[in-house]
Amino acid sequence: MSNFMELRETLTKSLLTIKGSTYTSGKSEILFRCPYCGDSKKHSTSKHFYVKIPHVEGDLPVYYCHLCNTKGVLSSKTLNAWLDERFDAPQLLNSYVKKASKLAKNRQYANTKVYRLQVPIPNMNDPYTFKKIEYLNNRLGINLTVEDILRFKIIVNLYDLLNLNKVDKLSGSKNYTDLIDEDCIGFLSRDNAYVNFRNTGNRINKRYVMYNIFGVWDNSRAFYIMRSDVDIMNGPVNIHITEGGITLMGVYHHITKQSPGIYAASIGTGFEGTIRYFLKNGLFDAVFHIYPDMDKGMDERSYFEKLKKNIGEYRFLYPIKIIQNHYPGEKDFGITPDKMKPNYYEI
């Protein structure tokens, strides 16, 4: 049996061990519930996550979710995060992907690196800059300094980021990019390939804009991790995960009072995907603090109990603490502290 045929057989066999996994009608893909967003919260049998099995040598195994739009190229590290038992042929998969990624037909998938970018110093004399920083300060009841903006990887002006890092190609029309630059403030992703912007004006017809800086295909690391102090020597690491960057800032400043820990915003990749990221990167002693919004219309306790089972309780030895804002009329912690009424429970 050739290495390619062996990889196909081993990969297919492993993917079909995932709970609820099935072939698609043409048997070119395997379908199961998304390990990143957790899939549909209303319908426990719905499946939106597809993994393409290479059928011709040189094809890449890629995955994508039609619900949360997470997508990427499969590696043994990613696959092991989905499986209950470790993948049998990690070297075979990784070497195949490395070789296939160099082919011209796979150029759109090949770029999965972490970029090195500088965060620009905001021009406080610019009226658009001042307005956006004032929006964040007033919304959260804080007073961000220039040092805070650089440390937290806050992008106040898109063009400043692109120009400083010599990124010449825009990921949208010039007119639309102008509006993002003038009206939006955002957070630079874990891999420095995306900025998740919050619209502060009324000229763009949506609250959030995900800007793809380099036009990369893989968005599985588009979540945001705040730069903060972490103490790994004294007890478990506290990992705080919110849905958005502004909520994360509120948690950091007002709930935890800037205590040491890891602070992350899932930003579209879902709580499950963000938790899996930390688990597969060798975190051995941790407590997860999850801050879900109050507007989901679902049983949060039931959802996170299922999440724990999906990840695998035998490897998920960490407590999950759920914190929600029960202040009347509020849905998250992206606000001033006088409108916060945290409610805690543990899974």
Secondary-structure blueprint:
Layout: H1 3-15, E1 22-23, E2 29-32, E3 49-52, E4 62-65, E5 71-73, H2 76-82, H3 90-100, H4 127-140, H5 146-151, E6 154-155, H6 158-164, H7 174-183, E7 184-188, E8 194-199, E9 208-212, E10 224-226, E11 237-242, H8 245-255, E12 262-265, H9 270-280, E13 286-291, H10 300-311, E14 320-325, E15 342-346
Parallel strand pairs: 11-12, 11-13, 13-14
Antiparallel strand pairs: 1-2, 2-3, 3-4, 4-5, 6-7, 7-8, 8-9, 10-12, 14-15
Helix pairs in contact: 2-9
Can you give a write-up of this model?
The chain is α+β, with helices and mostly antiparallel strands. The protein folds into three domains: 3-106, DNA Primase, Chain A (Alpha-Beta Complex), CATH 3.90.580; 127-212, no CATH class; 224-346, Dna Topoisomerase Vi A Subunit, Chain: A, domain 2. It is 29% helix and 19% strand. It is built from ten helices and 15 strands. The protein is globular and about 65 Å long. The protein starts with a helix and ends with a strand. The mean pLDDT is 86.
* Strand line-up of the largest beta sheet: 10-12-11-13-14-15
Mean pLDDT: 86
Order of helices and strands: HEEEEEHHHHEHHEEEEEHEHEHEE
User: How many strands?
Assistant: 15
Rg from Cα: 21 Å
Short description:
By secondary structure, the protein is of the alpha+beta class.
Supply database-style keywords.
6-stranded mixed beta sheet; alpha+beta; 347 residues; 29% helix; DNA Primase, Chain A; globular
